[in-house]
């Protein structure tokens, strides 16, 4: 069993307050959960209205499958027009 963990730092340019940020994040997290079957949380920067740090985890039988899944999730986030991916880290356990 392989566990994949990733941390994403994102910038939400369209957000002008925390309420708008939460709305964008709630939508993004919901889409990621349903499309990729992952666990995801906002890890840091809860008090900043244009920046957020998200973390997610996924599990698979093979390293290549988990690595591919994480890459697909990162690509999905990069293609989202509401946010900009600033940085990410990933780890396989």
Ends: how far apart? 9 Å
Major beta sheet, specifics? Answer: 4 strands, antiparallel
Radius of gyration: 13 Å
**H/E element string?**
EHEEHE
CATH class: Alpha Beta
Number of strands: 4
Strand fraction: 35-45%
- The overall pLDDT average reads 93
Overall number of domains: 1
CATH architecture type: 2-Layer Sandwich
Q: Keyphrases for this structure?
A:
Alpha-Beta Plaits, alpha+beta, 2 helices
Overview of the molecule:
With 93 residues, this protein is of the alpha+beta class. The protein has one domain (2-92): 2-Layer Sandwich (Alpha-Beta Plaits). Helices cover 39% and strands 38% of the residues. The protein has helices spanning 18-36, 63-79; strands at residues 2-11, 39-44, 51-60, 84-92. A hairpin with a 6-residue loop joins β2 and β3. The chain is elongated and about 40 Å long. The mean pLDDT is 93.
Can you lay out the helices and strands and say which pair or pack?
Layout: E1 2-11, H1 18-36, E2 39-44, E3 51-60, H2 63-79, E4 84-92
Antiparallel strand pairs: 1-3, 1-4, 2-3
């Amino acid at each position: 069993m392989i566990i994949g963990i990733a941390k994403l730092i994102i910038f939400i340019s369209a957000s002008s307050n925390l309420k708008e940020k939460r709305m964008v994040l709630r939508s993004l997290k919901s889409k990621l959960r349903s499309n990729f079957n992952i666990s995801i949380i906002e890890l840091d920067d809860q008090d900043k209205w244009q920046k957020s740090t998200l973390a997610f985890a996924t599990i698979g039988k093979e390293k290549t499958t988990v690595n591919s899944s994480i890459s697909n999730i990162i690509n999905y986030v990069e293609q989202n027009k509401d946010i900009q991916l600033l940085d990410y880290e990933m780890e396989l356990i």
